[in-house]
Design brief:
With about 300 residues, the chain is mainly alpha-helical. The chain contains 12 helices and 3 strands. About 55% of the residues lie in helices and about 5% in strands.
Length: about 300
């Protein structure tokens, strides 16, 4: 799975090299990658072209040592293992494309190994923290009503923030409570939400959203009637977390982690959670089983009569 956490400031203009331009066009048209993913690939490949240019080389003559030195320099600049793995994934895809299209006779990135990634567990809110957070927005104002529905929907559906900001009114069926979501690579999936979230969302769409004088079709709008940005939602969550007494840093993705973990704790099947999250690979979902295991171990140590004897 690709890590799309490249900030807007880090993104670069599309590289000016015919091979790279062809590859990005391939990703856009044939693979259907999203704008965020495409920007990440473009930035990674631009960094490689810059490095090769300093060495008086290009992608035509680059070898595995060039790529290794490029990644080593990135690590020396403080890039974490996850970001390095993302860079290497970009380069592998590009050189495999060049080999497949007959642009090169070999693949210089084929034998390079991925950097070891830290086995960090996802940050998860307790159920009490979720309740506190969802109760903070004041529903008597249009902005408060919007924010209450937004937070409720994040926890009810496990959406990525990029999916949330693109939701339109047409993507919600109030009769069935089903959301139609377009995830990474424009892959469509359906996500059910519980009755409380359904009722809040339906009421918001009918009574509150028109007060924003919509200029965009998306569900969640700012004061000007334009769709909320991902950055705007991050700021709102930070504000409400502080108001709820949650002192650690949380993000929209924390709701996604909490959604998955709480479903599994309630007995949901791992494959069902995978489908709801839109994970292509079950391995991406299995990290939540580690959260369960840690919690079970903690409970066992706390309550078993022989613990600590």
């Amino acid at each position: 799975m690709r890590d799309d956490t490249v900030s807007a400031g880090e993104r670069q203009a599309p590289p000016q090299h015919s091979w790279v331009d062809r590859y990005l066009e391939f990703l856009l048209i044939e693979r259907g990658l999203s704008e965020n993913s495409l920007s990440g690939y473009a930035a990674d490949l631009a960094a490689l072209l810059e490095f090769l240019k300093e060495k008086g080389r290009g992608p035509e003559s680059a070898d595995s040592r060039d790529i290794f030195l490029h990644l080593t320099r990135l690590r020396g600049r403080g890039l974490a293992s996850r970001s390095l793995a993302r860079h290497l994934s970009s380069l592998r895809g590009f050189f495999a494309f060049c080999l497949d299209r007959g642009l090169r006779p070999d693949d210089p990135a084929e034998l390079l190994e991925n950097p070891k990634l830290p086995k960090g567990l996802p940050d998860v809110l307790s159920r009490a923290d979720v309740d506190s957070l969802l109760s903070v927005p004041e529903p008597s104002t249009p902005l408060g009503a919007r924010d209450r529905v937004m937070l409720e929907l994040l926890y009810a559906s496990g959406l990525r923030v990029s999916e949330l900001v693109e939701l339109s009114a047409a993507d919600f069926d109030p009769q069935t409570g089903i959301l139609r979501v377009f995830g990474k690579g424009s892959k469509e999936r359906v996500v059910p939400v519980h009755e409380r979230a359904q009722a809040l969302l339906a009421d918001y769409l009918e009574r509150t959203r028109p007060q924003f004088r919509p200029a965009d079709p998306q569900i969640f709008l700012n004061r000007s009637g334009r769709k909320l940005t991902r950055q705007g939602i991050w700021k709102l969550i930070k504000k409400y977390a502080l108001a709820a007494g949650i002192r650690r840093e949380i993000s929209p993705h924390t709701f996604r982690h909490s959604f998955a973990t709480h479903l599994l704790e309630g007995g949901a099947d791992l494959r069902i959670v995978q489908a709801l999250l839109g994970h292509a690979d079950i391995a991406a979902t299995e990290i939540y089983t580690h959260v369960q295991a840690d919690r079970l171990l903690s409970i066992h140590r706390k309550f078993h009569p022989r613990s600590g004897v």
